[in-house]
Amino acid sequence: MMKKGQIIFKSAKERYPDLFAITEFVIKQLHEWIDNASTPTPRTAFECVLHACTVRAYNLYRSINNLLETDHWEDAGILARSMFELVINLEEIQQELGKEEEKARKYMRFNYLQQYLQTDATQRYNQQTGRDRPSDSARHSHLQKIARSIFSEFVDPKRKSEWQKSWCGKSVHSLAKNSKDAMRYHHYKILYSFFSELSHSGPLPVMSSLITGETTEEMKQLWEGHDDREKEHTALVLSLSTIWLLEVLMRGKDMIPDYDLKWNFEVMKMLYSCHGVEPPLFPFGKQNQNTSQMQIIKPQPIIKPEPDISRNSLCPCGSGKKYKKCCCKK
Fold first, then answer.
1. Is the dihedral of CA 264, 265, 266, 268 positive or negative?
2. What is the DSSP string of 234-267?
3. How does pLDDT run across 7-33, given as a tens digit for each residue?
4. N or C: which end of the chain has fewer CB within 10 A?
């Protein structure tokens, strides 16, 4: 029986039904397309990577949804970071037309290096704790000798004794900053600054969920402010994860026979609606008043701002003149 003045805390799914209507809509459709349908067998390295990334994005999204529904948006943010890395790696693979297969093969070879490194780390741990057998030590020594030859392309060019941190030799920061999509770097800063803090056990993640008040009324007021922040963070993680999932699906659409591009626009409409924003495109099936053809109004591209230049600095055009006497006048 509920006591008088007792505060009942509902789950995030109960508090924000409009947000979770989106994830339910997405997961239900993908369940039909991926789990209940036969997908084509990948025949190239590029198709293998697309297929694997599509399945991983789907599984990540379901896990993110489960965490968000139960008020664990901080942990969901960690998985959202994994989704982001999936997107920018696919973007790197598809960056140069005609080189997708070559890059996909390199991506897959790095997978084998990572498997070796995992085995190597386990074996080293076993050696330190006295758990290894003589046969294991001999095998480990042999693998160490041949690994440098097999995976020579991934040896760090600056530190010959170490391996590259990624398959393409570029950091996540570099991939995001040099992406053609200007929003990538903004996403990176959100994921690897604020969300990164929450993946550790410092004061911010430990204390963020604590609500203290001396009276029931104080607790209610504190909870209302806390809930506003919770909804904002939940909506951010959910929105970003959904957008990145849609991008992975579009890149790997050939791996899903029943995939329908119109569905993507329906999902985006739901996202915009949740944020109280009019979507910047006409939905499929709605005709423009001036034409019988369906039209899509594309959002204007985001242009990266030019860095601030002092008037007395040398002009970046390379003329040798001061900026104020050169391109500043243009």
1. positive
2. HHHHHHHHHHHHHHHHHHTGGG-TT--HHHHHHH
3. 556 889 998 999 999 999 999 999 998
4. N
